[in-house]
Design brief:
The structure is a homodimer.
Chain A (H helix, E strand, L loop, with lengths): L2 H8 L2 H13 L2 E2 H8 L3 H13 L3 E6 L2 E6 L5 H13 L5 H8 L13
Antiparallel strand pairs in A: 1-3, 2-3
Helix pairs in contact in A: 2-5, 3-4, 3-6
Chain A binds a DNA duplex (30 and 30 nucleotides) through helix 4.
DNA sequence: TTCATATATTCGATTTTTCATATATCCTGC
DNA sequence: GCAGGATATATGAAAAATCGAATATATGAA
């Protein structure tokens, strides 16, 4: 993982918010990120594709949804950088977390239904 | 310190190398960075000005030289991010450190002469 | 099969970033 | 003050990133 390429990925509002939200929530799909960030579907999708191509995110399809999570193979230092950023700037994604919490009818993950 | 603005600063080869070198060496001037990165003076200078404007670096003039160091007011999380990046990628600036060590007649800091 | 929902991709226009050259400013020694 | 070297800035051209709109693909249900 080239450090410059890594930071280029973080150097965009949409991508950084998506990454930190995913790091915090564990796993999110496109429609959840649309709601949390209040952005169009193509915009979210394009940035996620970029993050997947750089191998920061990995995806898994479940039915009609695609869930994104941090790439398990991510180097330790990269994971630490995101964690440090999140801890040092808790207010940065506060609004996004709130919007996500208020979202109606979020997709149900396998293994989470009753 | 806005996280996105911070990462934009790190998302360039010249700036990231300069930052990490300065973080490692404590203090460097333009001519030392030119030698260490093998880049033109205007290029180095422009990027340093950008880093100073974002308040990642602070400068001090000593005679004809201007020395740059990490801004002492830098938030803890930002300093940690750079440290983590440096520790996790020691080879990234290895060549630059070598070039700097081989540089002839480096400017003498006040208080460092015998 | 057909429809509805979720996600991905392409295209063209706009904005931002980057760079090289040239010019200006500052400092020191004479 | 003046000359020469070191550092800083301005300008315009080239390259890259971003965005919205339109389009395409995939899945599940009827």
């Amino acid at each position: 993982m080239n450090p410059v390429a890594f930071f280029k990925c973080l150097a965009d509002e949409t991508r950084l918010r998506s990454l930190l939200l995913i790091a915090h929530e564990g796993e999110l799909c496109v429609c959840e990120l649309m709601e949390a960030l209040d952005q169009s579907q193509p915009k979210i999708s394009r940035h996620l594709a970029q993050l997947r191509q750089c191998e920061l995110l990995s995806d898994r399809r479940q039915g009609q949804w695609v869930f994104y999570r941090l790439n398990p193979a991510l180097p330790e230092w990269a994971r630490l950088v995101m964690e440090t950023t999140l801890t040092g700037n808790p207010e940065f994604i506060a609004d996004n977390k709130r919007a996500l919490a208020q979202m109606q009818s979020r997709p149900v993950r396998d293994g989470h239904c009753c």
